[in-house]
Amino acid sequence: QVRLVQSGTEVKEPGASVMISCEASGYTFPSYSIHWVRQAPGQGLEWMGVIDPSDGSTTYAQKLHDRLTMTRDTSTSIVNMELSSLRSEDTAVYYCTRELGQWGQGTLVIVSS
Amino acid sequence: DIVMTQTPLSLSVTPGQPASISCKSSQSLLHSDGKTSLFWYLQKPGQPPQLLIYEVSNRFSGVPDRVSGSGSETDFTLKISRVEAEDVGVYYCMQTTQLPVTFGGGTKVEIK
Questions:
Q1: In the sheet where A78-83 sits, what is the strand order?
Q2: Smallest CA–CA separation between B102 and chain A, in Å?
Q3: Distance, in angstroms, between A9 CA and closest chain B CA?
C-alpha cells in the first residue's frame, strides 16, 4: 500500500533552515507528484508547493518561493523540503502528500529562540 | 488566488441526523479539460487530513456512501446523511483547478 513516512520533530532557532524528508513506498515513485502542506497550531491548511519526481520540476507558493526548496532522489524515493530563514510563524506541522490523496504522518517544526 | 469560503464555521449534530457543509469558490473551478478539481477532507484530532471526496462527487476508497459531494462552478456541498461519532473533526474543501492550491477555512463538526 502507499506509504509516506516523514522525518521527526525539529526545533530550530529563528534564521536557521530546516530540512524534512518524505520517504515514499508502495507505488512507482516518479509517477505521482508530491505536495507539501503545512498547518500552524490551531489553524487551517496552507499549500506550500509541489514537485514532480519524474523530472524534479517544482512550483512554489509565491509567499514562500524565496525560502523554499524541494528536491527528490529517485534512487531512494525520497523527497526533501527545505525552508530557510525560519521565523516564529513557520512553527507548524508539515505534511507531504502524494497528489493530495495519501498523506504522511506530519512533522512538527518549532521555531523558537 | 482562488479564495475558498466554507460555511458554517462549526456544526453540532445529533447522531443519526444529517449534516451539510457549503464551500464557495471566488472563481469557477471548471477547468478547460472539463474536470472540476474540488476535494473534501476530514481531519481528525492529531491526524493528517484524509481524503473523502475528489472531483466534486467521487468518494475516495473506503469512504462510506452516507458521505456525498455535489455542486458545480463555484458552489459545492458536502453532505453526511446520518452523522456518526466517527465523523467528528474538521472538514476542509480544497481546489486544485488553479495554482496555488487553496483550502477553505474549515468546518468543525461535533456530536451533540
A1: A3-6, A18-25, A78-83, A68-73
A2: 7
A3: 14
